[in-house]
Amino acid sequence: MTNKTFMELFGFKPVAARLSEAVVILIDMQREYLDGAVPLPDLQSAVAGAARLIERAHQQGAPVIHVLNKGPDGNLLFNVQEPYYVELTEIAARPGEQIVIKHLPNAFAGTQLHELLQKIGRTQLIIAGCTTHVCVSATARAALDLGYSSTIVADATTSRDLDDGFSNVIPATLVKQVALAELRDAFSVVVKTADDLPV
Predict the structure, then answer these.
(1) DSSP state of 130
(2) Which of 130, 135, 155, 176 is catalytic?
(3) Which of 142, 173, 186, 198 is most buried per CB count within 10 Å?
(4) Domain containing 68 — which CATH number?
(5) Is residue 54 part of a domain?
């Protein structure tokens, strides 16, 4: 038995993205997850981690792209007509920062994200946001297929309790831990905090 990741077993030596050479992608940090229909148990901690990531990105001149989830027309969840659609104040897009609207978990699917990144000309991504096991995971996996390398900032993501369909509830902390372990195994570098990113 080995503790090596699949990436290591295939001979890759993944390293964390350098802030001065990367693009930060912040996914779905919207009020829906604070006091809307899907409150997340550890959201405030993730917001603090994301705010620190944005601060460090600005210090290094790294572009920050904000991804917002828009639900289907007429759906209550992530409805643009409702107050819960907006980004959380602490990490909201600043003037000049790009906003991408998505309709699927993968932030590349049906959006202009790939085109924006090509225009910026950087292939290192630093990904954070909600939720670790769905949209963060789906975006990081798609990024690999498109030729990007990604780094996930663990304390700037969070998940929610899940029902496995067999009367078992998996706590959000475990859901997040497993999602990060899966990403680290084959798709991304995972660092604990923004302060662990090289410049």
Answers:
(1) E
(2) 135
(3) 142
(4) 3.40.50.850
(5) yes
